[in-house]
Design a protein that fits this description.
This protein has nine helices and five strands. It has 220 residues and is of the alpha/beta class. The longest helix is centred in the N-terminal third of the chain and has 20 residues. It is globular.
């Protein structure tokens, strides 16, 4: 009788031993973008804050931002910086330089090319098996009511990302709307910088915390 009971319990014991030996693979998240994301990995940056907000046993957080990048730069380095790392989730935060460089260095990205490269990014990342979250570019200047020089163009490119999110059935963190609403409520002197940014583009302490809090539900 004891032998029969032991034989019956053996499969259960083996399963218990197997599960205890197995290590749960953490969910790998890559934040893919430009200098805002590059700065985000530094202490107090939005990527660093998210890494601290998430359980390290369940999540692995990687920042893959390079200063000056536009959407086609992301496409060109996607294989090495994203696909080879086999992420579970990729957060794409690009578009500021595609607009801003039209003014600063006359090397922005044409609207139709921006959409084509962005869609190509989505296609290749999805084909690699990862989920995607899209982000609209936040601000190029923090003045209210469309008073910044690049506001109309930034709105246009943000609209393109909203359309891409809808067309591909992807979650969207609409940072453009979020930052505009925040500046409207918290910038009484109509300053061009210093509310959520250090220079009208790159995030200050409040901007990083705001972005981290906004993205946290998307990556969990």
């Amino acid at each position: 009788m004891k032998r029969i009971k032991l034989l019956l319990l053996l499969p259960v014991l083996m399963m218990v031993m197997l599960f205890s030996a197995m290590k749960i693979k953490p969910k790998r998240i890559i934040f893919f973008g430009d200098s805002i994301t590059q700065a985000g990995i530094k202490p107090g940056g939005y990527v660093d804050l998210l890494k601290k907000d998430l359980d390290p046993g369940k999540y692995e957080v990687i920042g893959a931002g390079i200063g000056g990048n536009k959407v086609y730069d992301l496409y060109l380095r996607m294989e090495d910086d994203v696909l080879k790392k086999q992420p579970d989730l990729v957060v794409i935060y690009i578009g500021v330089n595609d607009v801003w460089h039209k003014l600063s260095s006359k090397t922005g990205t044409d609207y139709d090319k921006f959409i084509k490269f962005y869609q190509a990014l989505i296609n290749k990342i999805q084909a690699n098996g990862a989920k995607i979250v899209l982000c609209t570019p936040a601000v190029i200047g923090e003045k209210k009511n469309g008073a910044n020089e690049m506001d109309a163009e930034l709105d246009k490119y943000s609209g393109a990302i909203r359309d891409l999110a809808a067309r591909n059935n992807l979650p969207l963190a609409d940072l453009r709307k979020l930052f505009i609403a925040y500046d409207l409520a918290n910038n009484p002197d109509d300053l061009a910088k210093g509310i959520l940014t250090t220079d009208g583009v790159h995030l200050n302490e409040k901007g990083n915390r705001t972005l981290a809090d906004t993205l946290l539900p998307f990556v969990k």
